[in-house]
Design brief:
This protein is α/β, with parallel strands linked by helices. The protein folds into two domains: 134 residues, Aspartate Aminotransferase, domain 1 (Alpha-Beta Complex); 241 residues, 3-Layer(aba) Sandwich (Aspartate Aminotransferase, domain 2). It is 41% helix and 12% strand. It is built from 13 helices and twelve strands. The protein has a seven-stranded mixed β-sheet with strand order 2-8-7-6-5-3-4, with helices on both faces. β3, α4 and β4 form a beta-alpha-beta unit. It starts with a strand and ends with a helix. 46% of the residues are buried.
Length: 382
Amino acid sequence: MKKVYFDSAATTKVRDEVIRCISEVLKTEYGNPSSTHSYGRSAKSVLENARKEIAAYLKVTAAEIIFTSGGTEADNLILNSCVCDLKVTRIITSKIEHHAVLHSITELEQRCGISVEYVNLDPCGLVDYDHLEALLKDTSEKTLVSLMHVNNEIGNILDIERVGQLCKKYNALFHSDTVQSVGHYELDFSKIPIDFAAVAAHKFHGPKGAGFAFIRKNSGLKPLIHGGSQERGLRAGTEAVYAIAGMAEALKLAYQHLDKERIHITEIKDYLKERLTMEIPGVKFNGSCGDNENSTYTLLNVCLPIPPEKALMLLFQLDLNGIACSKGSACQSGSSNGSHVLNEILSEVDLQKPSLRFSFSSYNTKEEVNYVVGVLKTFMES
């Protein structure tokens, strides 16, 4: 059976070079980086070199990179501390954010009594920047804007610089979940007025369980996890040196190969759009994912003209044929409520049809696209 992995927005295959890097660190750098003896100092050197390398790609200082277990922890750290320590009383967000953001904000709303407002979206799920500005100028409350850079389900791209400038203009803090964009887009945080960002290594061919929060210096944030004084006092616990070294290696390789891989992946996405349009009449592309100007090159969210009773077997049949893709984000795959993103932007008619998220990497080929489209066509005609 052919095997096709079209679910890189959920997680990516770890590069061989990253595996070698992790293995070497596991074998040779087993000291605790907080220890003062030579073993500890050596591990600390690996840790801090990784921090410097990562910071250099985002054009920030090493002190502004705080290592975490991934994007979810980074989002939680930032949002909780903004409310509890920076005394933010109002958060502006959207209804199609990642659940790491939405669920955290809901919990803060219930526990701390903050006010939450949702920026309007156009029919494709793109942010209404005029409405965002109206919300920002409408209050003197201490406000945080939390909007993701690249949507993990439909691929819409936020104009992160424009939002940053609006926040700066109205003295609001700005947090962005950049989990789907770091490693796929060049971001210069020395020029973009952003205060906080969340990143996960496994989205750019690094290991799971490693990520970081970008926290602008002198922000005043305090820890979510208490204990030792690791990570400049912002995240207690002995750091996973091997995973962090692997993350730095993965990010280095992502940016070294960025232009070449972006061209290849864009060709895969465009070819899948072309083949689906040709072979499956009535197919639709959700959000702005069919528009390469307003969506990421790394994914395509597809609404298929299949009746609901038959749609129940679709993912099962794809899996039986060795095809990995997603009906939404991997984080909600166990939910029976469907995608909160698609619920927000699709019509009632289209919500009754199955939608699939195909997401790509440089390992994918056009032959795989042909195979996937063939399996889909056969299923629909059976």
